[in-house]
Amino acid sequence: MDLPDNYGGLEENFSNYSNSFFVVLPVPLEKTVSYKGGTSLGPKAIINASQNMELFDEEFFVSTCNLGIHTKNEINCNQKMEKVMRDIEEESYKILSDNKFLCVLGGEHSISQAPVKAAKRIYEDLSVLHFDAHLDLRDAYLGDKYSHASVMSRVEEHCKMVQVGIRSFSEEEHVKLKNGNYTIFFAKDVYDNKNWFSRAIENLTENVYITFDIDAFDPSIVPGTGTPEPGGLQWYITCEFLKEVFFNRNVVGVDIVEVAPHDSLPVSEFVASKLLYKMMTYKYIKIT
Ligand SMILES: [Mn+2]
User: Fold this and answer.
1) How far, in Å, from the CA of 221 to the mean position of ligand 1?
2) How far away, in angstroms, is 253 Cα from ligand 1 center?
3) For residue 182, what are the domain limits?
4) Residue 210 belongs to a domain with what CATH number?
5) Which of 141, 148, 166, 206 has the fewest C-beta atoms lying within 10 Å of its C-beta?
6) pTM higher than 0.90 for the full model?
7) Which are the contacts of 266, defined by CB distance < 8 A and separation ≥ 6?
8) In 3D, which of 203, 173, 170, 200 has the Cα closest to residue 185?
């Protein structure tokens, strides 16, 4: 039997918009990638993987999908960048205004600035929790303000940020760090302990948006990404931290970006799919 083609492969009752608390917004954007392509295939691969994933949570013994998960049509990314960004922002704003939980699937990292702007229109105090191997704090990259490599410079124009998993940055970014007021938890300091959890959470405001570049994970568990970096985060420490964030703050939306599927090694999209479901589950536990 063919499953419905949505996140989780859910029947109509559990996936129509009005019944659903979670809303998945696929954004297959791939325009400014600097090394290897493939991120435009990310959303579809993650959704396909989700249809082969157990929907019962093994940690809390709940079926998170009972809250309903609606999957939107893909954002049309064959338009001018300005228009793509506006479309993402307006869709995100609608979803958040309907008091639903926003889940954006990329696509390259540059898309994150749009849902952040949408969330900021509703939550004045919004802060952004950023998982990534890279700082993404260039002012612009190759002259492009919308580049994936400068996305957090766009975000910091609107919000306070906490950055986790960082292990790669340029000289320009290093100068910026020294002269600015950043809250960064470098991969080398956080990969094997929880000592940093409370300080990271203290630096987040009540309403939080999470942007998760999948390359924050170690390439041994996520080989399929545009710019892999050794020395990344592992699964359990990441989930433990996310759980603390969800339980102690009001997370209003998330994105998962930079998944670039490998035909011969489909593990990355399964990790991304499960990561999203884990975050949904932590939200479910917090609100039920
Ligand atoms: Mn990255």
Assistant:
1) 15
2) 19
3) 12-287
4) 3.40.800.10
5) 206
6) yes
7) 45, 49, 224
8) 200
